[in-house]
Amino acid sequence: MDKQVKDKRTAIMDAALNLFTERGFHGTSTAQISKDAGVATGTLFNYFPTKEALINSLYFEVKGRLSICIKEGLDSEATFETRMRKLWSNFVRCGVNNPEEFHFIGQFSSSPYITKITREEAMKEYESIRALAKEGFGKREIGNYSMELAMMIFYQSSRAVVNLILDSGRLQDMDEIIEEGFQILWKGLAPE
User: What is the reported pTM?
Assistant: First the structure.
């Protein structure tokens, strides 16, 4: 992709991310996205034929970046608990360091505007995390719970910790809050 094309596409995606998280899907017009991106509205439609196509592309890209971020430094040789702690810490840190992207994913993850195909393609990036959860269930390192429920509790709990850190402005206490959150989660998932 040529640099000018990539720059325009990136500018459109960045403007859309900012506006969607600030105003929501319905509160954001393509004209406003174009204006904030510094491109003509027709140019936006050259890259994304509809606003729904734009939101799906943005969702897919942001989920991909988040996946890379949360898997960083995972040691496949470490204990299950150590890998879960690292995954938890990465997830929270990614959210704190990329609040707009984190908010966007939370805001649009259940949106009817995200197509089934986009959702399925984006989730392929998370197969290694699903495999880690299966391993924990297989080795009985997690209690006799539904894996889907446990993964949802992990996700929603991490979102709560990100929001606590950001809303309270307690960045200096982030390590302590991350560990405390992990302990609560870990004790809740541990077998009896």
Answer: 0.84
> 3-class DSSP state for residue 140?
coil
**What is the distance, to the nearest Å, from the Cα of residue 134 to the centroid of all Cα atoms in its chain?**
21
**How far is 171 from 117, CA to CA, in rounded Å?**
37
CATH class of 1-49: mainly alpha
d(CA 77, CA 150): 23
In angstroms, what is the C-alpha Rg of the chain? 19
Is pLDDT above 70 for 1? no
Instruction: Indicate the domain borders of the chain.
Output: 1-49, 52-189
Tokens standing for residue 8: 């325009």
The rounded distance, in Å, linking the Cα atoms of 1 and 48 is: 15
Q: Which CATH architecture has domain 52-189?
A: Orthogonal Bundle (1.10)
